[in-house]
Write a structure and sequence with these properties.
With about 550 residues, this protein is of the alpha+beta class. The chain is built from 16 helices and 23 strands. Strands 1, 2, 7, 8, 9, 12, 18 and 19 form an 8-stranded mixed β-sheet that branches. Strands 5-4-14-15-16-13-17 form a 7-stranded mixed β-sheet. Bound molecules: iron/sulfur cluster (SF4). The site of iron/sulfur cluster has 13 residues, from helix 16.
Length: about 550
């Protein structure tokens, strides 16, 4: 028997607990508080909720990361007194081109690559701290709560639906079954990171692509290591490009020393459904085997592992960031500067601009789309827009290969907006469009890789360090239609791409078995919620829906 859905009403619901929405919720509460302190008779009262599918604040947040503190300073000038968990600041940095055995240092660092003075940060710790500040400000936080769909009525978004709890594998109700609830709101703010399932639905319901390029994505795989003292100084930041990627594939590595013994090491690999041969996890393992990296890590211990997709198309690939009843923030809106390898500050700024728009809407009691358009206007008048405008052609240039990308980006640093060849930018494409004729090699070596268990690790072993877990007895949150499984996964895709999902997934969710007959097993409980499969699957047949709230990784240091 179906339980009736309960409904809770708020003024504003934030879907997603990353830095964009957390900054938005805090800023909105601050704006309301300041206004009410000044205007005793014309008060604004607002019930504000923020939901997140992670089992604790910051559980699903992962980034390199070096933080540009500009937005944080605007949001909370006293962040240091509030014990913001910033690590050491960058004191020395370098960029290197790697061949298989050698490294070549860049003789100078172009301005966008400079990080000196910016602090390292663990995004999961930073997010947990921001969540604490939001709660102190009076925002109602709901962890363990997965939104499964936007609630759309008469062409307007009026909240989100949360997932049912207590269904078994077959979808039957267990004794502890609880129907999902409607979280209704005058304004709903979507900030779910790259390739969010709600944002995808919004794009289908309210399709407006404003940029000239299709969105681009990478997958970042990160490990936190404890290393013997003396290998790197606290504050050292190293970026690399080249090995193990071929020049056709965009990506690169990083090494950040938080302390003399604590290190973030990671690798970013472009993912593309037209070239689904990448294995982002393997690329990190090969990167660690490079003599330059291995000499730093040898004798150390892997502490944490994780992965996430990154939105990298920049300004040219942004879709509309507002619509009837809703705003989109952070990476869901494309707020990431791939040239600077930074997005946290842009995400936070977008959240603050969203908060200012919402505050005005609540003050004037007008939540019309015309009022919410103020978010777009504020963004276009902000430093965030200026920064994204200056770097707008960076990532797309590398679609023509590493050397072209370097030439183009070098030229653009000198002459902003000038391109080597007109028309090199990607044309718009449907997200599901196949371009199989344009297969490109993307870094996966033909020979099997054997991790040594000291410096390099297989996916299962890494998973133990991600804290990922899911309720086992629930419907599989990764669905492939049975006929597609038989005709595409076990036939066409195998033949054309040689089981790409078994490589591009960094968590070994997709496993092909041959006996008693060829089959594709989906180990959904391994899932890191990185969304790579929804972006790299060449046939677009994998459907990712949020599992029960609380499932997924449990990052603490990433
Ligand atoms: Fe990432 Fe999960 Fe998809 Fe694997 S199944 S690629 S871990 S989202």
């Amino acid at each position: 028997m179906h339980q009736k859905r309960e409904s809770l009403a708020f003024d504003v619901v934030f879907a997603g607990g990353g830095p964009a929405n957390l900054a938005a919720a805090i800023h909105l509460k601050n704006l309301i508080g300041d206004h009410n302190n000044r205007n005793g008779s014309n008060r604004v009262e607002a019930e504000i909720a923020l939901i997140d599918k992670g089992r604790h604040a910051g559980a699903h947040l992962l980034s390199g990361a070096v933080l540009d503190t500009r937005a944080l300073e605007e949001l909370m000038p006293d962040y240091r007194e509030r014990n913001c968990p910033l690590e050491t600041s960058v004191a020395a940095e370098g960029v290197f081109f790697l061949t298989e055995k050698k490294k070549f240092a860049f003789p100078f660092l172009p301005e966008p690559f400079r990080n000196k003075g910016y602090p390292f940060v663990s995004l999961s710790r930073f997010g947990a701290w921001l969540a604490g500040e939001a709660e102190k400000a009076g925002v109602q936080l709901f962890d363990n709560t997965a939104a499964t769909a936007p609630l759309v009525e008469e062409g307007t978004v009026c909240g989100v639906l949360t997932g049912d709890l207590g269904l078994d594998r077959q979808g039957n109700q267990k004794p502890d079954y609880l129907a999902g609830i409607e979280l209704r709101a005058k304004i709903t703010v979507f900030g779910e990171g790259a390739a969010g399932n709600l944002t995808d639905e919004l794009q289908r319901a309210f399709p407006v692509q404003t940029g000239s390029s299709a969105q681009l994505y990478e997958t970042g795989v990160k490990e936190v290591w404890r290393i013997p003292a003396g290998r790197m100084e606290a504050g050292d930041a190293r970026h690399t490009f080249g090995y193990p990627l071929p020049s056709e594939t965009y990506g690169g590595g990083w090494l950040y020393a938080f302390t003399n013994t604590d290190l973030s090491v990671g690798f970013v690999t472009a993912i593309d459904r037209t070239a689904p041969m990448s294995d982002p996890h393997l690329n990190l393992q090969l990167f660690k085997q490079h003599p330059f990296v291995a000499s730093i890590l040898e004798g150390g211990t892997l502490v944490e592992y994780g992965a996430k997709a990154i939105t990298s198309g920049g300004l040219n690939a942004m879709a509309r960031i507002f619509g009837p009843g809703f705003l989109v923030t952070g990476e869901s809106a494309g707020m990431l500067n791939m040239q600077r390898l930074k997005g946290i500050h842009l995400a936070m700024k977008s959240g603050m601009l969203a908060a200012e728009t919402i505050f005005e809407a609540l003050l004037r009691n007008d939540v019309s789309a015309a009022m919410l358009q103020g978010y777009e206007t504020r963004f276009r008048n902000s430093w965030a827009y200026e920064e994204l405008l200056a770097s707008r052609n960076f990532r797309q240039a590398f679609d023509n290969g590493l050397y072209y990308g370097l030439l183009q980006s070098g030229m653009e640093l000198k002459f902003p907006g000038v391109s080597l060849a007109s028309g090199f930018l990607r044309k718009k494409e449907g997200s599901g469009e196949l371009r199989q004729e344009k297969k490109r090699f993307s870094g996966a070596p033909p020979k099997p890789f054997h991790p040594d268990g000291k410096l390099t690790f297989g996916k299962e072993e890494c998973l133990y360090r991600s804290g990922t877990m899911h309720e086992e007895n629930q419907p599989c949150h990764l669905q492939i239609n049975p006929s597609d499984m038989a005709e595409i996964c076990l036939e066409r895709c195998r033949e054309e791409y040689d089981n790409p999902c078994s490589r591009f997934c960094p968590a070994k969710v997709y496993e092909f078995t041959e006996t008693p007959e060829p089959a594709l097993k989906i180990n959904a409980s391994n899932c890191l919620h990185c969304k790579t499969c929804t972006l790299a699957d060449p046939y677009g047949i994998i459907s990712w829906t949020p599992p029960e709230g609380g499932g997924g990784p449990g990052y603490k240091l990433s």
